[in-house]
Amino acid sequence: MLELKNITWTTEDGRRVLDDVSLSVPDRKLVAITGPNGGGKTSLAKVIAGIIKPDSGRVLLDGRDITDLDVTQRAREGIAFAFQQPVRFKGLTVRALIEIAAGKTLNYTKLCDYMSSVGLCARDYLDREINNTLSGGEMKRIEIATVLARGAALTVFDEPEAGIDIWSFAGLIKTFDNLRRAQESTLVVVSHQERVLRTADEIVLLTDGKVTLRGSGSEMLASLVSQGNTATVCGKKEAIIDG
Amino acid sequence: MDNVTENLLRLVSDWDGKYKGAYNIRVDGTCAGRQSSDNIAILSKQDNPGLDIHIRPGTKDESVSIPACVTHGNVDDLVYNDFYVGENADVTIVAGCGVHTETGEPARHNGIHRFFLAPGSKVKYIEKHVGTGKGVGLRSIDPVTEAFLEKDALLEMDTSQIGGVDRTARRTECTLGEGARLIIRERLLTEKEQTAVTVFKVELNGDGSAADVVSRSVARDSSRQEYESTIIGNARCTGHTECDAIISGKAQVDASPRLFARNEDAALIHEAAIGKIAGEQILKLRTLGLTEQEAEQKIVEGFLS
């Protein structure tokens, strides 16, 4: 279980982005964090991964206080983080990145499993560099493959729908299922995409750095949709995702 | 053969106690072993130190290794090696060089290699340079490469200098005829007070000729690098030159890609980028469990691989 207790964080220019945020994420659940732009969603995700150090408040993982652990230490404690904008590396290959994520050398069959899970052929992609010859959609799929390879107990996705192609969206929803069922992973997903929110066990609404509403996925979704607080997927995408 | 020589041979070539195919091992300016093959003749030059290497037309899937080692200080080795590659031959040439000094005296190797590629021939040329030893004497390697590619010839040159060489001045000049292709991949790493100067000059003289010259380098500490690449398009041709450098500490890198179009059908491109490792790259690898130092190491390894 992940617990955030009274998290407060202020930017260097004095803007309070997170204001006494508390929430808990039970094991093997998907908790979505949604809300208006600038509401503090991404900052909260970064607090969980250790990228942002809060001014006050505590972060607990399975009862252990990890507030003072840095990014590397939290990764080693079993926290994975999927970036909103996947990072490109001139020279580093897809194979190298996935093996770094897995923390070990992988055989071809295993690498092929991760790549086919995101709809990419290992033969075509493993030796390619993660540079600007890859499209945004390909980058997103590779980012998802690295998250699968982590096999982490807790995975944080920061706006996974950003810049995504149709396949990746469908693959993303399947990946959430895969992570929860096969890997028994717990997920925190920052999103305002209705189709993503529909997969959540619990939805937390973050507005002006505060938790303004929270509840089960189905209850919250109805309320958020009626208030116009979500983005919707086009019909064709929806058919592919559900098909 | 002593341990220093064996270690250098392993670092700069595929030495595992012996070589496959033809070879000549040069140690401190003298020949420490030579083997020709039916198709590859290695002969001593009569007028200068060095070798004339003749590869028969049509030779396929053979290799020739000509490593050179300087194993102690106070050696200044100069060698001229000429390769004559016959029509439609397809071979690999490995010409690594290692310099070692344990004293305050300098160790230098200066290899001047010329390649004459007959029509339709293909050469994969691998050149690795390294410096070893704890002595403060300067380790220098100053290679000169000249290549002449006739009709439809192909030269792939993979050259790297990854560590230990204090001073290097690298000059490569290539002339391409009709339909000839040149691919150059250079990898350089400098640290501490090391300096590296790289100069490429490519003349595309034949219609349909093409050159792709890419250099990647890492400059750390107070090291300095200068890179100059010139492509001259004298015919209907395509040319691309690219220099990518990562800098850290007080290192300095100067890059000057230059294009000279002398024909309206010459299509030439240059790219140059210099910068430190992006913070987001380090952060991404830290979220995968690496420390900052491990992340930087992985990024540099990948960049120079």
Q: Based on helices, strands and strand pairing, what is the structural class of chain B?
A: mainly beta
Main sheet properties of chain A: 6 strands, mixed
> What is the CATH homologous superfamily assignment of chain A?
P-loop containing nucleotide triphosphate hydrolases
Low-confidence stretches of chain A: none
**Main beta sheet of chain B: strand number and arrangement?**
10 strands, mixed
List SSEs of chain A in N-to-C order. Answer: EEEHEEHEEHHHEHEHEHEEHH
**Cα end-to-end separation of chain A:** 33 Å
Tally of domains of chain B: 1
The number of strands of chain B is: 22
Helical proportion of chain B, percent range: 10-25%
Secondary-structure element series of chain B? HEEEEEEEEEEEEEEEEEEEEEEHH
Class inferred from helices and paired strands of chain A: alpha/beta
Average residue pLDDT of chain A: 89
Terminal residue distance of chain B = 30 Å
Rg of chain B computed from alpha carbons, rounded to a whole number of angstroms: 20 Å
CATH topology of chain A: Rossmann fold
The coarse silhouette of chain A is globular
Strand order of the largest sheet of chain A: 6-9-10-3-11-12
Number of helices of chain B: 3
Q: Which two chains form the greatest contact, residue counts included? A: A-B, 24 and 21 residues
Low-confidence stretches of chain B: none
